[in-house]
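Course assignment 3, question 2. Fill in each field.
Student: A.L.
Task: Predict the tertiary structure for the chain below.
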Amino acid sequence: MTKLSDTQSIILSAAAQRADGNVLPLPGSLRGGAATKVVAALLSRGLIREHIIDSPRKADAAMNTVWRNLPEPDGRGVLLFITAAGADAIGVEPKTVPYAFNEGTNSAGEPAAGAPTGADEAPVESAPKRRGRPRKAAPTGADVAPAPKTRSGTKQEQVIALLRRKEGATIAQIVAGTDWAPHTVRGFFAGALKKKLGLTVTSEKVGDQRVYRLA
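Answer field:
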């Protein structure tokens, strides 16, 4: 099973939902060096690919269309697209998407640009620097806040119940039970379940489907 960070999951899920599989635009808060590190990691793992366009269209500051430009005097633009491996990593069957995975060539039949320098090195996040007053000791006993509780009779509870079954649940089964879109279900896994409730969702390929369960 491919392990992804929350940011990587969001980027790949958004790309899989676009009509052409384009990775851009990136999430609004992801810019500069942080964006470069995340994109480089995805490129090095083959989850996205670079695609040279036959135009010198410049990369824009907001990175909404063109990711970067090849070195001068070439100067052509480079786009980013999700790969079949990237779709599979988030539980999307490649055959179900409306676009073809044109792996590694541009419209002129040339090889794709490939990962930029340093892309084969996984980004390392440095520990945040502590500022101001030292933190107080962690509370114990009655001072500790209770763990978040799931709400009774909600779609959240329905999804958790499906994921806790021995046989787990597929995205299609959860969609049928909640009327949510597939990308909403994946966002719920990364957001409400992981961040808010501290639950871990695992997945495995069973036949031609991907099954999800709570760890």
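Instructor remarks: DSSP finds six helices and six strands in the chain. The first strand starts at residue 48 and ends at 52.
Grade: pending
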